[in-house]
Design a protein that fits this description.
By secondary structure, the protein is mostly helical. It contains 15 helices and three strands. Strands 1-3-2 form a three-stranded antiparallel β-sheet. The N terminus is likely disordered. It binds iron/sulfur cluster. The site of iron/sulfur cluster has 15 residues, from helix 10.
């Protein structure tokens, strides 16, 4: 996912401000959305902790898999304080099945900073949110838009794809953010961001965009003709490296085992699945220890 802390580019904003096609796009998507809006449980919440957990979980995990995990996680950690007071290992345990365990660790660190430095209340400015551990430009704006209902735009892979196709150009990060910010109807930041996310997820999809029946076809610069401008555009995720046989798989396997029991350092090569490669074993184990995903208690590994 594209990550940049830059704010919008005001000169580009002027470029888009009077574009009637963009204004029409906003009207079309807003009219399309209410009947097809995805029923996601976190959309009923304006609690920044609940919103943050949903956003962190939904990065890199499919939404239908996130829903039961989000509910279970918030049952155990209903407040940022409850998460901050728990051990990181308890959050990692509940992350089972979501993958990318580092996200649980980052959530724990974020909760601790919110409690220690903000009195348990989430800060409200972009700069303060970006300063929290594990929070990047997308997540910071998502908390602002979906918890505080601010008029800021989120640019994830869905939105980035839609914007590039709409303009029929591969966008730089600043331009994409500026364009996205300029589309937000005043006072409707929450609704607009949900609508364009759903539009990207269900109409302007990555592999088979529904251009022939798309309500925005008449204002779309690309409309499925020629090379897809979304490839390589800001915010649009790129192909992930192969998981099977990777260090990431080995890291995940050790964490999975540690959810059930501690593991002796001497046995870690077997858990990783590469007993004949001690250098690799050492490298992967060191990375887990350095990240704080795993702790070494006198030769026995455990979750933190
Ligand atoms: S016409 Fe096709 S490319 Fe353009 S917004 Fe609609 S689905 Fe996306």
């Amino acid at each position: 996912m594209w990550q940049s802390g830059d704010l919008s580019d005001s000169s580009s904003l002027e470029l888009y401000a009077d574009d009637p096609a963009l204004a029409r796009f906003v009207d079309v998507v807003r009219a399309w959305w209410p009947d097809v809006a995805r029923d996601l449980p976190w959309r009923a919440s304006r609690d920044p902790w609940e919103v943050l957990v949903s956003e962190v979980m939904a990065q890199q995990t499919q939404v239908d898999r996130v829903i039961p995990k989000w509910e279970a996680f918030l049952e155990r950690f209903p407040t940022v304080l409850s998460a901050a007071e728990a051990s990181a290992g308890e959050l990692i345990e509940l992350w089972d099945g979501l993958g990318y365990n580092r996200r649980a660790l980052n959530l724990h660190r974020c909760a601790q900073v919110v409690v220690a430095h903000h009195g348990g209340e989430f800060p409200k400015t972009l700069a303060e949110l970006l300063a929290l551990p594990g929070i990047g430009p997308y997540t910071a704006r998502a908390v602002m838009a979906f918890a505080f209902e601010d008029d800021v735009a989120v640019v994830d892979t869905n939105v980035g794809r839609v914007l590039a196709r709409l303009r029929n150009e591969t966008l730089l990060p600043k331009t994409a953010q500026t364009l996205a910010d300029g589309l937000v109807p005043p006072g409707a930041g929450w609704e607009w961001n949900q609508a364009i996310l759903d539009f990207g997820a269900s109409v302007c999809t990555k592999r088979s965009p529904g251009c022939s029946a798309c309500p925005a076809r008449s204002v779309c610069g690309w409309a499925g003709v020629g090379a897809d401008p979304a490839v390589g555009s800001a915010g649009v995720s790129t192909k992930q490296s192969t998981f099977v046989g990777s260090d990431r798989e080995a890291r995940g396997e050790l964490v999975r085992r540690l959810r059930a029991e501690s593991v002796a350092v001497a046995d870690v090569a077997k858990v990783f699945g590469f007993v004949d490669d001690p250098e690799r074993v050492e490298r992967v184990l060191k990375s887990l220890l350095r990240d704080g995903m795993v702790v070494d208690n006198d030769g026995m590994l455990a979750l933190p």
